[in-house]
Design goal:
394 residues, alpha+beta, GMP Synthetase, Chain A, domain 3, five-stranded mixed beta barrel, four-stranded antiparallel β-sheet, 11 helices, extended
Length: 394
């Protein structure tokens, strides 16, 4: 039996790919299903003498759901161990998760997520999972896909304007969390009754946004890599069309929108570099006045600091100017001075011819072995013709 949350498909005695007795995933993030993985760069650094190890750990559940739990029993835990945790204090039921982070780096993660170290909301770890716990957990996971499809069918039959995107069963197979997206408020009281009758478990509905949905489901972006929101991005900052304008991008919704339907988060990655570079550029609405005529702005290359202008009388012709030259002409125009022509300010490009070391002796040709040599019959015919000719006489 392989780990249901692992793409390796290796056989394990207790549902994991770890060599430990309790199973678990020893890959610690190399599996394709791991999302928002954190590399513990402090694991090889020993604690100072007399300092106890931090008693909180980070536990991963399905997809990108991770929570912090307190190790009150002082269990020896390592990344990849499967543990049984408390769901709600003073209530029956438990959940099963995998240890994703331990040690001092958990403090950094708790500060990042604004979770107090002494918070009473942090639940505790019961014990390490046994073989029976893991098998029950795997049975619950196998129900999730069929449950999601049946729940979608029930929601459509009730006429609810919502989309059930994911289902997560609790480790003890007694509770199911339904994640859904909706544009407006949905009255799903009748839906909960139908779901409880159908699946015989406690039902919890959680509304998420379209970006959170893409983060949970994952996928491949237009760049060819996995989605940032499902691999490392945790904060969803607002993205506006001005980010595309600053970067001189075409305002095409099909190219600027991600799989969630919103503007791509990566539009903000290089925005600061563009805004800093644009501080040196003049206002593009300012025309350049010369004795030849008035020129208006056409386009620019920000990082090469190049602008193109065209005369109003000759809109087909593009004149390439460096940023320093454009600022110089604008400064002259402010003094009511006009240069003769923009061509005077064009810098000549010196093209250095680079030696071509490719295909020196034809080794890159795919047809170099396709040339056929002349047959021996033709050679013999030429020899016979030479013998038949009479010798030359002076």
């Amino acid at each position: 039996m392989g780990c249901s949350s692992c793409s390796t498909g290796r056989g394990c005695s207790s549902g994991g790919c770890s060599s430990s007795k309790e199973g678990g995933c020893s890959k610690s993030g190399s599996c394709s299903s791991y999302k928002l993985n954190v590399t513990d760069w402090l694991k090889d650094i020993a604690l100072p003498a007399g300092q106890e190890e931090f008693d909180c750990v980070e536990i991963r559940f399905k997809n990108n759901r991770k929570e912090f739990y307190r190790n009150t029993e002082k269990l020896s835990l390592s990344v990849g161990d499967v543990v049984v945790v408390v769901v709600v204090q003073a209530l029956p039921g438990f959940d099963v998760g995998t240890i994703s982070l331990t040690g001092e780096l958990v403090k950094k993660q708790m500060r990042k997520h604004k979770v107090a170290f002494d918070s009473e909301e942090i639940l505790k770890i019961n014990r390490k999972a046994t073989k029976a716990d893991v098998e029950k957990w795997l049975v619950a996971q196998e129900r999730e896909v069929d449950t999601m499809y049946k729940a979608r069918t029930i929601a459509i039959a009730l006429g609810l304007q919502m989309k059930i995107s994911d289902v997560e069963y609790q480790g003890d197979n007694t509770k199911a969390i339904f994640y859904y997206t909706a544009d407006a408020r949905v009255d799903f009281r009748e839906l909960i009754k139908r779901l409880a009758e159908e699946f015989k478990v406690r039902i919890e509905m959680k509304q998420i946004g379209v970006r959170q949905e893409a983060s949970k489901l994952g996928g491949i972006g237009s760049c060819g890599r996995e989605l940032c929101c499902s691999t490392w991005l945790t904060d969803f900052r607002s993205v506006s069309t001005s980010a595309a304008r600053y970067q001189q991008l075409s305002l095409n919704p099909e190219k600027l929108a991600g799989q969630c339907g919103k503007l791509k988060c990566c539009l903000n990655y290089e925005l600061d570099s563009y805004t800093d570079a644009l501080k040196d550029f003049p206002d593009t609405s300012i025309n350049l006045k010369t004795k030849t005529g008035e020129a208006f702005f056409r386009k620019m290359d920000i990082f090469s600091k190049t602008l193109w202008y065209s005369y109003k009388s000759d809109t087909v012709r593009f004149i390439e100017l460096k940023l320093e030259r454009v600022n110089e002409i604008i400064a002259l125009n402010k003094k009511d001075e006009k240069p003769d022509d923009l061509v005077v300010f064009v810098e000549e490009k010196i093209v250095v011819k680079q030696p071509n070391y490719e295909n020196v002796v034809g080794q890159d040709s795919l047809t170099r072995f396709d040339k056929q040599k002349g047959s021996n019959n033709n050679r013999n015919k030429r020899k016979k013709k030479r013998k038949n000719f009479p010798p030359k006489t002076n």
